[in-house]
Amino acid sequence: MSKFHSIVSRRDFMKGLGLAGVGAAALTAPAFHDLDEVTSSDSASWKRAWWVKKQDEPSVELDWSQIKRYDHRLMAHSSYPHVQHIGKEKWLEAVAQGPIKTKERLGTPGWDIRSTALSGSQGVWTSDQMTRNDKMVGSDNGFKTPEQQGLPKWSGTPEEANRMMRAVILAYGANQLGVTHMGTGGDKHRNLIYTYSRTGPIGASTGDEWIDKWPPPPGYWRKIEMRDVAVGFEEPLDGVKDVVQVLPNADLWDMGIMIAMPREAWRVGNGVNSGSQISSWGNGMRYNIYHTSVQPGVKRFLRAIGYHAYGYSFPEFYGGLMPSEASGVMGGVAECARSSEIIINPEVGPTGGYFSILTDLPMSVDKPIDAGIFRFCHSCHKCADYCPSGSISKDADPDWEIPWQRWGYKVPSLTNNPGKKLFWSDMTTCRISYGYINACNQLCRGVCSFNVNNSAMIHELVHATASTTGLFNSFFYSMSKSFGYGPLDPDDWWAMADGLPARGTDSTAVSFSGGYKK
User: Fold this and answer.
1) Are 419 and 401 within 8 A, CB to CB?
2) Are 313 and 241 a contacting pair, CB within 8 Å?
3) Do 214 and 336 meet the contact criterion of CB atoms below 8 Å apart?
4) Could you give the CA distance from residue 205 to residue 220 in angstroms, rounded to a whole number?
5) What is the DSSP letter of 435?
6) Contact 355/294 with Cβ under 8 angstroms?
7) CB–CB of 48/42 below 8 Å?
8) What are the counts of helices (DSSP H) followed by strands (DSSP E) for the chain?
9) 334 — phi, psi (to 5°)?
10) Are 219 and 201 in contact (CB under 8 A)?
11) Would you say 374 and 473 are in contact if contact means Cβ atoms under 8 Å apart?
């Protein structure tokens, strides 16, 4: 009696697609009888498709004994670790090719004047006054605490707090929120907080100028410490203000925030090996939304109801206090992927931008998910096939060991943090390709088999099948190519752009509410 939209039986639907053999495997559990059962099956605070399952640990295996606090100055956008991996001469040779390759691309499809204008026009957010005044604990300009207002601070259950903050991040332009508790007494989740951030109040530690002068002086990074204090703060170091960021050694809740990015824009390339200024715009749009709306709004809202938020400090636009992908995975927003430096969301695929804000507001926590995404990545290597630098692993199975010797590094990898059983990506060749030679702008996201239009019924079927069995994964990988989900020509994007939804994203992709009910 089970129906899709109460019109055709599941078996008849599968037969109509010519996929009758898939039906039993795809739709084994749970047994829903109508759409009301589907939409009410998840928690009241976050309704998702039935095939997105919650569990205690992420779908990728973790070894918490190996996960130590990471020095974010050594991340993949930093020059210093790559020089240690492959040598200074080889690195600078690649860097020198960057301007030459960029000049060659100017005026070509995706790098023409209108595409360049689109990408460059969003850069105003980096000098926005509200952002420039932002510190780890936010700005108090115009926002009073409850005490200053003569009001009691907000109180409610952790579940109500979770639901409230989900509404807040949506109101300010983000799409999803997942919450992880960071307890005291050596809680393993605190090892996700960086030891150092890559940017300080003076500048960044990532440039070539620090290759032979490592580490840079204070002010080109911030040091993150945890102390027995009630409220976090920033303090000077060696005469430079706001270099040390102090977090309370008390219960905190990590809010993993996802902002959807335009699918089609991510797919726009310049030939086989390069991205485009259109895909660059799609990538950068999340930072515009987050730093001019979401983060200032969340920080001020929490201050106004009597709590504290700890997030990104100017001019740190990209890093924050911990890996935002870790927030997304532990909070159940997304799963790890074959490309080890991205995560994939069940609703928006790989085109989600992730951020993290810590707070002392007690909230109910969300569990990691298994929607079959990481299992699908075992069979699919579409991102690796398209990767112009061959940086993404094509191994059949994930591994605990980081294959730095196979990559030809002179020292163990500094950009990959152990403790995860992943398909490890070579982040040095990735950075050379992404930042200098090909400007591929993470083409792997654009061509991903999950970068599809979710409103099409066939794709909902694929998601549901992949979440219950990996038997048909290789078939679905081939099918994604048949549907034409690969690189997109820049002129085709401009032709369709005025028919796409606002910001190029479909808000209904992450909505499971048919309307407001009192």
Assistant:
1) no
2) no
3) no
4) 5
5) I
6) yes
7) yes
8) 20, 14
9) -155, 175
10) yes
11) no
- Find tokens 């993949």 and name the residue: 76
The answer to whether residues 371 and 346 touch, using CB atoms and an 8 Å cutoff, is yes
Residues 347-386 pLDDT 10s: 899 999 999 999 999 999 999 999 989 998 998 899 999 9
CA distances from 189 to 222, 233, 299, 312 (A): 20, 21, 22, 19
Out of 152-166, 263-277, 426-440, 450-464, pick the least confident: 450-464
DSSP per-residue letters across 97-139? HHHHHHHHHTTSTTSSHHHHHHHHHGGGGGG-HHHHT--TT--
Q: Is the peptide bond before 487 cis (omega within 30 degrees of 0)?
A: no
- At 21-80, the pLDDT tens digits run 444 444 434 444 443 443 343 433 577 887 889 999 999 999 999 999 999 999 999 999
- Tokens at residue 334, please? 């997304």
Q: 88-105 vs 79-86: helix axis angle to the nearest 10? A: 120
Task: Give yes or no for a contact between 128 and 510, defined as CB atoms under 8 angstroms apart.
Answer: no
Q: Which residues pair with 345 in a beta bridge?
A: 349
How many whole angstroms separate alpha carbon 95 and alpha carbon 92? 5
Task: Report the largest interatomic distance among the alpha carbons of the chain, rounded to a whole angstrom.
Answer: 73
Separation CA 153–CA 307 (nearest Å):
8
426: pLDDT strictly greater than 60: yes
Please answer whether residues 428 and 409 qualify as being in contact, where contact means their C-beta atoms are separated by less than 8 angstroms.
yes
Of the chain, the end-to-end C-alpha distance in Å amounts to 31
Q: Is 57 left (phi over 0), alpha (psi -120 to 50) or beta?
A: beta
